[in-house]
Amino acid sequence: MIELHKVTYEFSQGWPRKQHQIVLSNISVKLYMGKTFGLMGHSGTGKTTLGKMVAGLIKPFSGTIFFHGKDISRMKPPDWLFFRRNVQMLFQDPQGSLNPKKRIDASLRDVLNITKVPFNQQKEAIEDVLKTVGLSTDFLLRYPAQLSGGQNQRISLARILLLKPEFIVLDEPTSALDISVQAQILFLLRELQKNHGLGYLFISHDPEVIQYMSHTIGILKNGNLDIVPEG
Amino acid sequence: MKDLIFQRKKYFIRIGGFLFILFLLVAIFANFIAPFQLKDRFDPFLPLGLKHLLGTNDIGNDLFTEFIYGSRITLLVGLLTGVFSVSIGVLIGLFAGYHGGFIDELLMGITDVILMIPRIPLIIVLSAFLRPSVGLMILVMSILWWTSTARVIRSRTMQIRSMGFVESARCLGFSGWHILFYEILPNIVMIIIPEFLITVASAMISEASLSFLGLGDPSLKSWGMMIHHAFQRGGFLNGMWWWYIPPGMSITLFVLSMVFLSFAFEETEIGMGEEVAIAPFNR
Amino acid sequence: MPLLTVERLNVVFTTHQGRVKAVKNVSITILHQETLALIGETGCGKSVIAQSILRLLPGNAQINGRILFQGRDLLLVDEKTMASIRGKEIAIIFQNPSLALNPVYSIGWQVGEPFRIHQGVDRNQSIQESVRLLSYMKFDKPESAVKMYPFEFSGGMNQRVLIASALALHPNLIIADEPTQGLDRTLIKQIIEQLDRARKIHSSSMLLITHDLTVARSISDWIMVMYAGEIVEQVPTLDFFQSPFHPYSQGLLRSLPENGFHPIPGQSPSMIEDLQGCQFHPRCQWAREQCHREKPGLMSVNERLVRCFLYD
After folding, report:
1. Measured between alpha carbons, how far is A209 from A171 in angstroms, rounded to an integer?
2. Out of C56, C63, C82, closest to residue B283 by CB
3. What region holds the ABC transmembrane type-1 domain (chain B) (predicted)?
4. Which among B165, B174, B271 is the nearest to A114, CB-wise?
5. Which is nearest to A4 in space by CA: A34, A24, A19, A20?
6. The pTM is what?
7. How far apart are alpha carbons A166 and B274 in whole angstroms?
8. C-alpha distance from B259 to closest chain A C-alpha (Å)
9. What digits encode the pLDDT tens for the residues B120-171?
């Protein structure tokens, strides 16, 4: 379980006098494994910022984020590594997540190398994960620019799945995709949640998508998070 | 003129590549190409001829031999300076661009300080106090010439750093070193090579200028030195254009060949190798 | 006489990976004051059709066929004539408004551009025309808007600016290529309303290219569905949403949020390799033996055209 406790984030810019903008104020929420928390709000309200904080990419201005009860800002290497592997993030722009100069198989192998999977087991692991996301092994020899948006998104998902995470922050994962491809990706995400017990923080501006995917919905407005009651 | 280059880019690149390799081969195989030795002496002040393709100088050395061997020194100075200074520039640019914050400020501060140092005057002064030598020149140029490379690499690194795949890499748990050298570096190679070529060109021209002024290494006959001798020892006064024009032209041609080669490394977007041209309709 | 007739258009791109057959034997007819929505996934070739009409394809494209606009074959006219047609008789609205606008010129300058180029009007007058156009598009305070720059406007406002600019010279045909891509729900509705209103005011026809079915539904008279470079269904809009005939069309409608996000299994075929039989058959729940072997042609059923053996 991931818990946010009174998390605040400010954004300051300007010179000579800095102007502070409060993006998130006193956010407290619990995110459970196996369930999806849908996060809504207009563009620029800080949904992505919140997502990045949950994924450990940005530090909050104040407040704490707990992972299985431990404060992530105070984690020592073994705990931090565990957190890093288990909480992942899928970004909005499908082509942006992959190194354009790397072949798909190289991008996938990189991940296996940092988890120290032995070379002889790598081929099988890659084939398995491609099957899970619904792509054939033909894609291994291609470059991201040769793949469509939906295919790139699947590869990015495959890379994340190689780490066997518990929780994934999904930042507008289908906003840049066609309607039919969107349906495919959403279906895939639900299947993965069912089969692997993954928890999701699903960020989107589309109310229908949020309704379809989420168990709990929160709306970000003026820096505050309002949780929509069930039912 | 821009359109001419744009549509015929392929040919320019090939000409550049051909010339570059030609010069390189001449420098490497100088012993086999040069008809005589540098120290051989014949009749002085001979004009162009079959035996002495570029005639002889004031003490009778064959000028064609000097010309061929001169390529070694000139190219060596240029290429070594290029390698060293670009290496320094890339490392500084990468670190400054990736880490930002204090490290960036520190490194850019150092860059600014180096930029303030007047390059050619420093070499002149040092040559006056120490013995002028090729090694000194290469050393000083390597220490001073990396600044523009560092800046260019830094801004490109900052650009790439904000791209999605770098963030993804951080998220997946790759270490900073891995990201710098395996994710970011491959994407800036296309910029490093033109920077290298420009640095080599600049170093070569600087060396030639300094040698021409008499501040180069007198024991090694670079093209610049050859031109210097031509002017100092009566080649110019006697109208012996074959003494100083060939080395001068060669420097120009070599620099031009590198400029043409650098056309091959133009990229419109990161990840795309070719430009998409909107050409007039053709069936 | 129809406003635009595309006859058996074929477009092939020569690339490193092979020959990409982007558009295969496509024929389209648009009458006056009619809106045709061209629907399909990204990469199915619909944008290529728009670029072919406007003669804006890259150098590695081979085009075959005829594109008759008001009786003239656009593939045969010279570039000078084409340049005078673009912007004046055929207007284009592209996908990404912020990219289509030049960041260093003011809004007024850019909206006034069609007037300066096609009508030879001077600078001040073109700015006045811009003010007029912007107030038409219901911008409040158009006089101050013309002095502002694209970065000061949101994506939605920039798109409205582009629409105003595109329609400045009363074009006969408007080609809108994914005009609502990336915008959120409320903005899409606004843009589409303005587009429709502007079209009616100028009595223009429109070729609307989109993958968003909701957008297509709201303002089009006819719908053409494209799959892997081919037209697979052509049908009046109302009939399409009531009863889509082609299995791909049905799949598209089932993917819609209001119908439950049901995905179509499988992937679109590669545009380089030729698939034997019907291009859609690997993903089709009604695929028969015939579908594996033969390619269906476009069959006429009442007012529709469908490329499927089910309707033979």
Report:
1. 13
2. C63
3. 71-262
4. B174
5. A24
6. 0.78
7. 41
8. 25
9. 888 888 888 888 888 888 888 899 999 989 999 999 999 888 787 888 888 8
Q: How many CB pairs under 8 A join A and B?
A: 57
Q: Which pLDDT tens digit goes with each residue over A25-34?
A: 888 888 989 9
CATH of the domain at A194: 3.40.50.300
Nearest by CB to A91, from B167, B178, B271: name it: B167
User: How buried is C103 (Cβ within 10 angstroms: 0-12 exposed, 13-18 middle, 19+ buried)?
Assistant: exposed
Q: Establish if C187 touches chain B: CB-CB under 8 angstroms.
A: no
Q: Is 1.10.3720.10 the CATH number for B26-265?
A: yes
Tokens of B40: 């051989």
What residues of B are in contact with residue A100 (Cβ under 8 Å)?
Answer: 165, 187, 270-271
Domain that holds residue A76: 2-227
Cβ(B104)–Cβ(B157) below 8 Å:
no
Report yes or no: C280 and C267 within 8 Å, Cβ to Cβ: no
Task: Give which of C52, C95, C298, C68 is closest to C209, Cα–Cα.
Answer: C95
Inter-chain CB proximity B282 and C75 less than 8 Å: no
Q: Tell me, what's the ipTM?
A: 0.80
- Provide the 3-class DSSP secondary structure of residue A177: coil
Beta bridge partners of C36: C207, C222
The pLDDT tens digits of the residues spanning A73-109 come to: 888 888 888 898 899 999 888 777 888 888 898 889 9
Q: Which chains touch C (3 or more CB pairs under 8 A)?
A: A, B
